[in-house]
Automatic annotation (TrEMBL):
Keywords recorded for this protein, A-Z: Hydrolase
Amidohydrolase domain span: 42-516
InterPro entries noted in UniProt: Amidohydro_3 (IPR013108), Metal-dep_hydrolase_composite (IPR011059), Metal_Hydrolase (IPR032466), YtcJ-like (IPR033932)
Provenance organism: Sphingomonas suaedae
Keyword Hydrolase: yes
Pfam families: Amidohydro_3
Entry's Gene Ontology molecular function annotations: hydrolase activity, acting on carbon-nitrogen (but not peptide) bonds
Protein name from the UniProt record: Amidohydrolase family protein
Amino acid sequence: MTLDAKGELVRFNGIVIGTDGKVVKLLKRGDKRPDRPDWKEDLKGRTVIPGMVDAHGHVMSLGFRALALDLSATRSLGEAQDAIRRYAAENSTRRWLTGGGWNQEVWGLGRFPTAAELDAATGDVPTWLVRADGHAGWANSAAMKAAGITATTKSPAGGRIEMVAGKPGGVFVDAAMALIEKALPQPTPRDRNAAFIKAQDILLSMGVTASADMGTTIDDWMTYRRMGDLGILRMRIMSYSDGVDTALQVAGSGPTPWLYGDKLRMGGIKLYTDGALGSRGAWLKAPYADAPGNSGLPFLTDAQLLNSISRGAMDGFQFAIHAIGDRANQQVLDAIDELSDTYKDGQRWRIEHAQIVDPADLPRFGKHGIIASMQPVHQSSDRAMAEARLGAERLAGAYAWKSMLANGARLVFGSDYPVESPNPFEGWATGFTRQDAQGQPFGGWRPEEAVSREQAWRAFTIDAAYAGFGEKKFGHLAPGMRADFIVIDRDPLLASPSDLRSTTVLETWVGGERVFQRAAQRGEGGR
């Protein structure tokens, strides 16, 4: 089954694929099969749907995270310290220990962890661990010493050094993270290759055949090109550079063409206007309910934002702008209002996350063809924290998916991996239930903002492809489209939400080639 270009359901029981990896025809019951195909694959009645498209992820970060210390499963500071001690013992030859995934909210800590607490697990080996949302990092004393951090070090614009007893406490928020990261040993090209291959394996195993890559660096781009040159690039990457300068250095005077059989294109630029809600870096119109006097951090002045957009848009680059807090979303909407008459040739403005929006600003998302690029799993992960940060009276425009559609925005879904799992079936289920994996809360959190099962599916396929200018190449199955599809173990339109979350991807095909097959499947059938 697939959605067509209009979002209508189409059922079929066979696919004819050309030698170019594109769909020739979808076969229905009674349609004549080719007489002498070059090859034939019998999937034995299993369910086939288009490959899933993640509208917002971080490919290299996923790979590096998977190869480093992962604290995402820890439920207390003590658990995290134990995991860090084990990792340190197993990697005693490393110059630095790195990893991430920690979340002090999940730990019930009520504050950020400290360098001293990290020292207790690492000793004098420099250690840097990035928070789950990627907007804060935790350093030990050795790391701060290596980076030259002292009691006199000032917080940079757009960042904050958390202080303890008048000295840097070990946590660096948003732009302040660079103070530590400049001291980190740089990964080698071999390290980068390994991280990419790991990330690609994870994504293909979960049924993600195409993904936006948000914040592509020059080193990331060179890794993707190496993989393409070697024939190892299996998935499709819609690349958004980490700034205007990177885009111009990679692509020159405009977006690159699609490369390697429509597998790679740099078409856009990623900008940040604020931080994250969990680290209280999201820029709000009013102070945080649980931190009076703190309204978050703006990253750019209005003039800086307008200038950056103009520099890229004049060469035809699309913009994907991170905005989490209501004040940040207002700033981006104001900029789009001001520039849309100047840059109106298919710009496809994207606002990434759009998590907390003033209800008064929601109708503005329907103007200028704005794409609301949102992540369902953020809502299920963040709901308790969002209530604490904002207070119940300020949640009317929070994670407002249905309102985005009602106001005329194009809603696209992703996961923001590795902040969250890249499993698209978890996001799909959350999209129409507003519940977590345990079915909580009963009836869904602010269920009036749930979308339908089909709308959530469309946001993870057709519209996610559209958001990256890929809608004529992938995102659904039809003649002329790339034959990107996955074989799964259940009907996603009939499965209960919990069963949908448990969907197993048996095979993944990209461009008519099988690029993943679950171990138990190997040996069955023959191509």
